[in-house]
Amino acid sequence: MRGRYVILSLVLLVLGFLISYSYQLTSERNLDHAISSEQWKKEFETRSLLIEKEEKNSDLQKILFEKQEEVKEIERSLKDQKQVYYNLVEDVEKFRMYVGDLPVAGNGVRVTLEDASYIPDGENVNNYIVHESHIFNLINELNISGAEAISINGQRISSDSYIHCNGPVITVDGKQFPAPFVISAIGDPNVLTPALNIAGGIIDQLAYDNIVVTVENKAEIKMDPLFHDQRVSS
């Protein structure tokens, strides 16, 4: 009988150990499952938050792109306006130069007209001296050929300048100048000089009228504004 009790005690001890071990293992599994569930919940929330941030970033990038395009459009508009203003200022400066409000300098030509050095006996002296018509014709040819500014003996002229001949003296806008008459023109000498020397052109006409003509290309000609005490023209 004692042996049976011992065996029964051992069986009960083993059974208790197995039950205890099984309970402990089950508890640990439930705890692991609970921890895994909590981690999954946190990961889900983190992923959801990242997705939300990515969507916001995407929206912000779209807005940024739109703003960048607007800025580029404004910059292009300002550039166009700046170019327009620059062109207007440039045109105004050119017009002021043409009407004589500004001093001007540049390369060009200098044409000197002189009375004939020899007058045959019995000939009319008026046929051998420079008249205002000769100067007018020369100035017209220079203007047609692209001269930007013209002066006579240093006196800058405009479209409404008054030129009058009185014997060997010409009057330009109220100022008198004796011969020789130096007409300076600012412009491209490679255009002005050939235009003056064209066959049958103004130089041939002046020579036919017994006028002594000298044409020189000048690297620099300076002219003061109109309504200024102008005495310099090189």
TrEMBL record:
Transmembrane segments: none annotated. Residues 50-84 form a coiled coil. It holds the Pfam family DUF881. Gene3D superfamilies: Protein of unknown function DUF881. Keywords: Coiled coil. PANTHER family: UPF0749 PROTEIN RV1825, UPF0749 PROTEIN YLXX. Belongs to the UPF0749 family. This is DUF881 domain-containing protein. It comes from Metabacillus rhizolycopersici.
